[in-house]
Amino acid sequence: MQLAAAAIEPIPLSRVDWDDRRFAIESFRPADDIRASLDGFGLLSPPWVLPKVGDKFAIVDGFKRMQWLRERGEERVICAVFPADAGVWKLWARRLEARLFGPPLNTAEKAQVAAIVSSGLFEGKWLGRLLDGFDLPRRPELLQRWMRLSQADRSILEAAALETIHERAALELARWPESPEDRSELLSILEHLRCSASIQVEIIERFKDISMMRGMPVGEVLRCAEVRTILDHPEWNRREKTQALRLWFDAVRLPRLKARERSFSEQLHRTPPPPGAQLTPPPSFEGDRWRMEVVFSSGDDLRERLGQLRSWSLSSGFHALLAPEPVRSPRSASD
Amino acid sequence: MRIPRPGIVRIEEAVAPGSVANQLRKNLPEAVFEVVNKIPDGTPFDPRLLEVVEYRGRFLRQCPGTRHYLCCGYRILHIGVQCSLECTYCILQAYFNQPNLRLFGNTDEMLQLLADELASHPHELHRFGTGEFTDSLLLDPLTGLSCRLVPFFAGRSNAILELKTKTDFIDQLLDLPHGGNSIVAWSLNSPTIRKSEESRAASISERLRAARRCAEAGYKLAFHFDPLIEHPGWQAGYGDVLDRLFEAVDPGKIVYISLGAFRFMPELKSVIQARHPRSRIVYGEFIRGLDGKMRYFRDIRVELFRFMQERIHRADPDLCVYLCMEGEDIWRDVFGFSPEERGGLPSMLDRAVHQRMGIAPGKP
Question: Which of A208, A260, A309, B178 is a Cys-bridge partner for B182, taking CB atoms 3.0 to 4.6 Å apart?
Answer without folding.
Answer: B178
